[in-house]
Amino acid sequence: LVSRNISKHLEEYFFDKGMDYTPLIYCWRGGERSRSIAAVLESVGWKPTLLEGGYQAYRKHIVESFDKILENNFHFKIIAGLTGSGKTKLLKHLKKHDVQTIDLEGLAKHRGSALGQEMNIEQPSQKMFERILYEELLKFSNDSPIFLESESSRIGNLQIPSNFWTIMKKSPVLELDVAINYRANFLLSEYAHFTENNELLKAKLEKIKHLKTEPVFNSWISMIEKNDHSGFVESILKNHYDAAYLSSRRKTYRSQPDHTFTISEINDISLSELAKKIANTVKP
């Protein structure tokens, strides 16, 4: 059976690989299956690496190491703000200014709301998400803070690890203050795929239908069908996302932000200037 499987793998996965190919080979426990195929690949001339103990041992290592690395006394700073305030884009600008950042939504492949699933992209598994987050933490020192976007404990189908989440909840908050019309315009540009597909947008809204009164929900559907996307976005911000955000922040993070930054318009210029201002306060 092992020989038959090796032959199948050679025909399907390895036939077009060059001699500089260096595969990582593993099975669940690092037993006969992975050792056998590694030996065959080595005899062909490739240089395979065998994961000792298999994925089971690797997963145990990740779980134990994740707990241990959080003992490094990392300092988090949370970028908060109502939906559409440009928090994720600010993180990207902070990174350009050599500030330590973690984009949890980027790692999770989800923007953290009912409409947040990335188009044609599946979220990673919970185990993979934790591994990726652990590898991100390995890049950082505790000499300066790590900036993250405010989140609930769940991003799409993924759960932020409890020990990591505990640190986030205790961290100081910097809040972005942006007028609703600017937030609506920003969201229309960020979620253009929805404005181009009304049926997809209406289907996504079904996830939160049970949370809204019938008149409010029906008004959203009506605006979408009339292609009044600006009116729809402002309405869903007022009647859903803003209230949900404020309730979540009160329950999760410190009652008052340490600093509030007012942005008149969300664009690369304003966010870059703000990122530079924040970066100058944290660099040694």
Task: Explain what this protein looks like in three dimensions.
The chain is α/β, with parallel strands linked by helices and about 280 residues long. The chain has 13 helices and nine strands. It has a five-stranded parallel sheet, sandwiched between helices. The protein has a two-stranded parallel sheet with strand order 1-2. The chain has a two-stranded antiparallel sheet with strand order 6-7. Helix 3 crosses helix 6 (about 125-135), helix 4 crosses helix 13 (about 270-280) and helix 11 packs across helix 12. The chain is globular, with a radius of gyration of 23 Å. The mean pLDDT is about 90.
Furnish the topology, listing elements before pairings.
Layout: H1 2-14, E1 24-25, H2 32-44, E2 49-50, H3 54-69, E3 76-81, H4 87-96, E4 100-102, H5 104-108, H6 126-137, E5 146-149, E6 154-155, E7 158-159, H7 162-169, E8 173-178, H8 180-190, H9 192-195, H10 198-205, H11 214-225, H12 229-252, E9 259-263, H13 268-282
Parallel strand pairs: 1-2, 3-5, 3-8, 4-5, 8-9
Antiparallel strand pairs: 6-7
Helix pairs in contact: 3-6, 4-13, 8-12, 11-12
Main CATH class of the largest domain: Alpha Beta
Oligomeric state as shown: single chain
Report the sheet with the most strands, covering strand number, pairing sense and barrel closure: 5 strands, parallel
Which structural class best describes the helix and strand composition?
A: alpha/beta
Instruction: Tell me the number of helical segments per DSSP (H or I, 4 or more residues long).
Output: 13
pLDDT averaged residue by residue: 90
Strand order of the largest sheet: 4-5-3-8-9
Instruction: Give the overall form.
Output: globular
The helix/strand series, from N terminus to C terminus, equals: HEHEHEHEHHEEEHEHHHHHEH
Unreliable stretches: none
Radius of gyration: 23 Å
| Tally of discrete structural domains | 2
